[in-house]
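Input record (one chain):
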Amino acid sequence: MFFIFFGLVYQAHSQISLDIESGLIFPGYNQVRIPNQTGTSFDFNRDFDIQGPVIPNRIRPGYSFGKNHIFALYAPLTANYTGIPGFEIQLENTLFDGSRSLEGLYKFNSYRLTYRRDLIQDEKWVLGVGFTAKIRDARVLLSDETQTDFKDDIGFVPLLHLFVSYDAGILTALIEGDGLAGGPGRAFDFFGGVRVPLSNYFDLKAGYRILEGGADVSEVYNFALFNFASVGIVWGISGGRY
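The corresponding structure, as predicted from the sequence alone:
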């Protein structure tokens, strides 16, 4: 109903878009201590081996009218680990024997709603700012042959949004993302790359994405860094033109 309403009101100056992105993830650090005061510090990417390539999938429908833009994002992320860390690990209420093989799971699914307003919009440059409402759905899990323990963390995170692009003719260079730091944690998700038109309605998108952040609170200490080699397709239909 929301999209239909604005489609009728701003039909002559509106655009519907769909941004589908994938690629390959190169993990950085993934430091964990749960609970923060009594748990054991370990790093998934240092003390374990990641299992197989981690392939991200991000789906972002959008609606634009004039200098205003609304986006929704679904970005699941799951990494599986295995290894023998060589030291005992206390996770939640369970003590794991580090001399035996352990399996681990790190999940960080993101659901976002973004509003952006373009402050500069000319033939070459676009500069936009806005805000993002993010819901995180995270889980850290360890298991061995006899026991399993995990910590779920579902919560709301407000973020600032930034968009900058430059139209160079044959391609458009852009930086776009969400981020905020302060208090007990931080969160950054930024993409830098190019968009190349394939047709009137499709652009090829490629570049580098960084996802970094975490929290240092009483229940959880976790900070992680993931580097993305990203590629995607952006599809758009403008109001008044099909």
